[in-house]
Amino acid sequence: MQPEMGLIPLAKEEKITHASTLTKLYWLIKHIPQAHKLTFAVAGTSFAVIMIGRVIKQRISPRHPWIHFLPDRFLVVVLSAVLTFIFRWDQQGLEILGKVETTNGVPFKFEIPVQIAHLNHAKEAFSTAFLISVLGFFESVVAAKALGTTLDVSISSNRELIALGTANVLGGCFGALPAFGGYGRSKVNKATGGRTPLSSVILSICTIICVLFILPYFYYLPRCVLCAMISVVGISLLEEAPHDVVFFAKIRAYSDLATMGLVFLTTLVWSISTGIAVGVGISLITVIKHSTLARIQILGRDPISANWKPIDDSPSLEQTPNILVIKIRESLTFANAGDLSRRLWRIDRYGDSRTHPSLPRLKQGVHGVVFDVAGVASIDGSGAKVVRDMVEKYVNRGVGVWFARVPGGETGVVRERFERAGIVELCGGPDRIVESVEEAVRREDASEAAETVGV
Hints:
Layout: H1 8-13, H2 21-30, H3 37-60, H4 72-87, H5 122-151, H6 157-172, H7 183-191, H8 198-214, H9 223-238, H10 241-250, H11 254-269, H12 272-291, E1 296-301, E2 308-310, E3 323-328, H13 337-350, E4 368-372, H14 381-396, E5 400-404, H15 413-420, H16 423-427, E6 433-434, H17 437-454
Parallel strand pairs: 3-4, 4-5, 5-6
Antiparallel strand pairs: 1-2, 1-3
Helix pairs in contact: 3-4, 3-9, 5-7, 11-12, 13-14
């Protein structure tokens, strides 16, 4: 808004150009009387024409698709430059683009940017480069996913980012600005009929031609018109926000709404970099939290089908007396193995992993534990160590330990890791690894009955 109101010189003088959004907004409201009237009028008219054109295109395009090819923004640029030249608005305080030229006079000069003389700027440039990279990453992924869904095509975010990284490395050798997959530009490309990467190639060629031959003719282009176009793009990015907020509220995803609101307020009060840092930090904490949780379920027998199912799904399932049947639904790694041991301790003591550990013991000890490990596709060293310690505690208490449905059978990776860690030998040998949960429960009952008769 500062360039569109002609307040950039005053903002630089008061050092407000890099302040927070909230501070800038307060400053703008305070200095409205000092705004340059001609600059504000040109910017406001350009913004209004472009927005009205967008609305008209959206309403007419279903009946007349050719309306998308109407270059309304190009017409605004050309018309504003012509009017500035005719009426000499530049002499009335309207800031124009002026002559654009390079320092060495060569438009595209190849130069390796990584040089020893430039290394002293690396420290101060790192934070800005990181911010640009994160913003570009988010915008590129959002554009790829959103437009990939609307076009019914599969878009790989990894390939997109590799392509963007390669382009930026080569562009840096010619002094180019960082480029990413912009959501607004991608929507324009889609709206004008672009469907393949060839549209981007043609766009790049046209851009080079404009820079070499047409750019001098935009000498009188008002800078506020360019800023108005950026404002239109920003509004187009916010158009889908209300829909997303309504969707998350409808499904009661209040944690996502809280994260969205916190990032928005942080960006508004502090800065974009702080908002991104908060968003990335919350996302990392959420990912770590979910990755460290062990997905386990207590199983019970269905009296009708005799299948073993999670007892949380149906209260009618029968639990075997004195035998605990646990299903581990995912691979065991250093991240979730510790949580597995903690939750099993609570289940053994209270019958539920969600019970607070400060309560007195509510459940008598079991004489047998069956682990359904069909979902354990792999197990690392830390996971094997936790499982071994857990089995050792059960064995020392006289509790029989069984493993059912080990993936891969006797030659599988999980079975091999169990044998190398001494888990198979510790729980009683290969006979303790069986094909089904039903077999493990039956053999544990038989073993307990034999011990009772022997006593």
